[in-house]
Structure formats: structure tokens, C-alpha cells
Amino acid sequence: MPKGYWIARVDIRDAEGYKDYVAAAKPAFERFGGRFLARGGAYEAAEGPCRARNVVIEFDTLAAAHDCYNSPEYQRAAAIRQKFADGEIVLVEGL
Prior knowledge:
By secondary structure, the chain is α+β, with helices and mostly antiparallel strands. The chain has a single domain, classed as Alpha-Beta Plaits. The protein contains 3 helices and 4 strands; from the N terminus they run E-H-E-E-H-H-E. A 4-stranded antiparallel sheet has the order 2-3-1-4.
């Protein structure tokens, strides 16, 4: 079965407040087996608009990625994130 991925691109407006999101999101990622493959490191804008923070999270399946995103734990964390950052998250099925 193909893996599932979150691809998130984020601009953080308040770094201190964003720490609350990171702490709140951790239980959801642990519950659904999320593994960070990229988490805000160096990047190069090769084409198109970009954001300052880029994150890739791997899950065992797309269903697990979907369930994590829609879980009560993550939705509480997302409400915090939206106060302190702008961005996009896409859920993608792997090969």
C-alpha cells in the first residue's frame, strides 16, 4: 500500500506562539505514526512562489495522513497554528 505524505509550506508570523502549535500537534503525529522527513531546513526556490518553512511528513498510508489531519488533536493544534502562521498543507499519496 502506498505511503501518504503531508507537504506543508509555512510563513511563521510569531515564532514564540508557533512553539505552542508544535507542542499541540505532537500527540497527533505520534498517534498516527507521522515521521518528519523535512522540517524547515535550508531550501532553494527553484520555481514559483515559496514560503520560508517547508515540511514533509510521511505516514504509512494516505488514510493515516488524512485521519491525522482531521483528528481532534490536530484540529486543536491547527487552530493555534493559524493564529501565528500562514501556509498551505497538501496530503499526497506516494508511489
